[in-house]
Amino acid sequence: MKILIIEDEQKSALYLKNSLSESGYQVSVSHDGIDGLFMAQSGEFDLLILDVMLPGIDGWKIIERLREHSTIPVLFLTARDGVEDRVKGLELGGDDYLVKPFAYTELLARVRSLLRRPPLRPQDSLSVGDLHIDVLKRRVQRAGQRIELTNKEFALLQLLVQHQGQVLSRSQIASQVWDMNFDSDTNVVDVAIRRLRVKVDDGFEHKLIQTVRGMGYRVEEYSA
Fold first, then answer.
1. pTM score, two decimals?
2. Which residue ranges carry the DNA-binding annotation (predicted)?
């Protein structure tokens, strides 16, 4: 398995490269955002470990550009530890988010989890009420109106609609959308649901995304 690390702090990058190499991975390193993006777009790598603050272009821009054409798993590894930063990284298309300083054993566990995750085989299209999802083209419409979603918003909506009528707990959502264990002190799921509601339900008479108090969330057609 080939891993690309985009990290401008050279000591940290060298530590990661040596440690992951000892764990059996082929590791390449870039210290610059522009060069790192070019390498990541080559299609040669199975996993990207990405810092946020980088010279050239930052990690946010890298994943935005990358997600236009690539589904390579991305693990953010950064000192930016705010909830909004974690939410942003995951919504832009990150698969996991680990804050520095970190334990290498935890990093390795997350790397292994991302690399063994099977590829998704989604349905071609999904619908609930007047909401329609073209899964292959990653397009969402409601009442004929196009809705622009981030990668994580799309994945969240797709999960809810696939299980329409069913209540999904926060831990189920976190596990399937972000491939992470749910921490009761983390409101990543609630923030993502709130943002998704603004795009999917605001301005429409019937609300599709429902909160089931004490249990989680569900999508259901026009229920009171």
1. 0.57
2. 123-221
